[in-house]
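Reply to dn_fold:

You asked what the input looked like. This is it:
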Amino acid sequence: METQSSPSTLIIDRTTVLSLFAALSVLTTAYAASLRVLHVSTTTKLRILFIWHLFDSLIHFIFEGSFLYNCFFTYISVPHSSDYPHPASSTSSGVYFMGYADRLYGSQYGKSPTAKLWQEYAKADKRWGGADLTVISLELLTVFAAGPLAVYICELIRRRDSGGKLWFWTSVLATGELYGGFMTFAPEWLSGSPNLDTSNFMYLWVYLVFFNMLWVWFPFWVLYEAYNNISLAFARASGAIGVVTKKNA
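and this is what came back:
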């Protein structure tokens, strides 16, 4: 796998600090909410599950929701020309986002706080500064399906409903998160990672590895816990059926 190796200058400015602070604030909010809404007898495992899914939903709604907003509503007008570079026409000529050949969409053309946030992340992965069709397609599912499902899972935990319904939906969401992560980066890996900047510590280990691996580590942990709980439930059900069958024999 090849990655972009030309050195880049790391500039830690106010946007960098505020972007990192915003992500930390979301985690802090999720933790504070767990203290407020969960019963005192909630186990540590379920509390972590709650915090993760509330953090997950807030990231989807606030951060990735703002990414979609910038993709659909932030743009600049450009001269219409068949050979004009366009983020949606790298593989097929004449393909334009939203069908507008005279517009370039994406956060890199905006001046709002959310546009600046994604301009910061786009320093590590250029696709997030424009209107990459694969990323937008995945984020539509993430914001409008994964986000609400994560909130529903939090509500199940709040209601102390830790049965099969909880573990089924956590499995569905975890599988979707892993699939989404793979589909986000697989096109890059298969094409030599032309949009990734791995030339300094911040871009590689903080923006690309740490923040994205959160959506690998936690979904795998959720699937592991779901497997154990569902297997235990089936084992208990099989045992109970066996006892009833012996009594009726």
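The radius of gyration is 22 Å.
Hope that clears it up.
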